[in-house]
Amino acid sequence: MGMAGGAVLGLRPRPVQAGAQREEDLSDSVRTALSAAVAERAPPGPLDHPDAATRLAHLRWWAACGARLQPRMPDAPTRDEFLQTLWYEAKRAGLEPALVLGLIEVESNFRKYAVSTAGARGYMQVMPFWARTIGNGDPAHLFHLQTNLRFGCVILRHYLNLEQGELFMALGRYNGSRGQAAYPQAVLAARQGWVV
């Protein structure tokens, strides 16, 4: 695992928290649905807000999260692209952006090129088997911002569906520690820091 922007700023990088996520057999229909969910390559477009209140709430979120993310991602264009992509992919998967930010904080501490000892990659620590199972087969693509966030959000949504909406169990499954409290508690605690 390489040093990231945190080391440049004098902050000691935290170790990657990805567990030994398990590859599970997927039915053909689930594999097809997940493959379709990650296949669309359209970049996040301009954010469409149905009303002024929604737009103001989003702008407050953007400003607050951008300020909190600045020490970890000092380059403003990189930070803006990250936040726009994260918002888009989280909403697309029906996830709360604060939850996805909390998961990323715990999984990779916002390091794009983080690699765990289990081989999980990128911001959301996606295991390479997912690239083979529902992607194009090339795990190197898991370091691409939108690909990593798309896969991570789609996989978390899949686990939430499998666990019938039980977030604690879905987070454990995402990490490969299903039924153990430490990881879900860490993500939920980190999530609190991103709620606006």
* Structural class by sheet pairing and helices: mainly alpha
Measured distance between first and last alpha carbons = 32 Å
CATH architectural label of the domain at 74-196:
Orthogonal Bundle
Q: What is the typical, i.e. mean, pLDDT?
A: 84
Topology, number of strands: 0
Amount of beta strand: under 5%
| Assembly state (oligomeric) | single chain
Tell me the CATH topology of the domain at 74-196.
Lysozyme
Helix/strand layout:
Elements: H1 5-8, H2 28-39, H3 52-69, H4 76-92, H5 97-107, H6 128-134, H7 145-162, H8 167-175, H9 182-192
Give me a quick take on this structure.
Helices cover 55% and strands 0% of the residues. The protein is mostly helical.
Describe this structure in words.
The protein is mostly helical. It has a domain of 123 residues: Orthogonal Bundle (Lysozyme). The chain has nine helices and no strands. Helix 5 crosses helix 9. It is globular and about 45 Å long. The N terminus is likely disordered.
Structural features:
196 residues; mainly alpha; Lysozyme; 0% strand; disordered N terminus
